[in-house]
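TASK: fixed-backbone design
INPUT:
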């Protein structure tokens, strides 16, 4: 399915990761429709990079600086807008991950894609691309975009640790779900993408 990328079908994957890849590539993935006219959302892609083996899995997120155009100071997955030069959605996610964190695209095994998620404030439709590496890569953060890198443990405490908080979206106060991470929190589209991943990992 992703022959244009370094998926290496001969690569040995941990059982849990191989099962997730089979599930993601066999399912019919709904894609959010882009309405004509008005203010259509922009297309974007993020890379959810799974790291580790069958027992302990982690992923890489980062806090955005206050200098970026969108989602200032938020904790998110590496990613961004799909550009005209990108071959496809997967290529866009890999390019952004390399630009922001120095993750080499050729070292990432692509497992599949999750359902599209929308942002309310910045008007994006985001496709989460799931990739895998056995160990944490050497990360080289772009200081213009990345305030700090966070290695997030994926464990069973995720849903029990969630909480509600008020955020301002388009000038209006809204109550949202959030998940605490190292002096910050994940919410919005990033949280929804993480939930989709954890649901998929349950099979």
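OUTPUT:
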């Amino acid at each position: 399915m992703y022959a244009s990328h370094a998926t290496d079908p001969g690569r040995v994957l941990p059982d849990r990761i191989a099962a997730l890849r089979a599930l993601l590539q066999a399912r019919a993935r709904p894609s959010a429709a882009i309405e004509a006219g008005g203010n259509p959302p922009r297309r974007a892609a993020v890379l959810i990079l799974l790291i580790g083996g069958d027992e302990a899995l982690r992923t890489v997120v980062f806090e955005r600086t206050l200098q970026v155009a969108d989602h200032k100071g938020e904790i998110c997955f590496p990613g961004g807008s799909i550009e005209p030069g990108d071959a496809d959605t997967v290529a866009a996610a890999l390019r952004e991950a390399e630009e922001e964190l120095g993750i080499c695209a050729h070292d990432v095994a692509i497992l599949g894609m999750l359902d599209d998620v929308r942002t309310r404030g910045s008007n994006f439709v985001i496709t989460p691309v799931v990739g895998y590496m056995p160990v944490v890569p050497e990360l080289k953060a772009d200081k213009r975009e990345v305030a700090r890198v966070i290695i997030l443990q994926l464990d069973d405490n995720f849903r029990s640790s969630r909480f509600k908080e008020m955020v301002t979206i388009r000038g209006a106060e809204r109550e949202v779900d959030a998940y605490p991470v190292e002096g910050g929190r994940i919410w919005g589209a990033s949280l929804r993408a993480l939930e989709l991943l954890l649901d998929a990992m349950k099979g």
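COMMENT: The chain has a mean pLDDT of 86.
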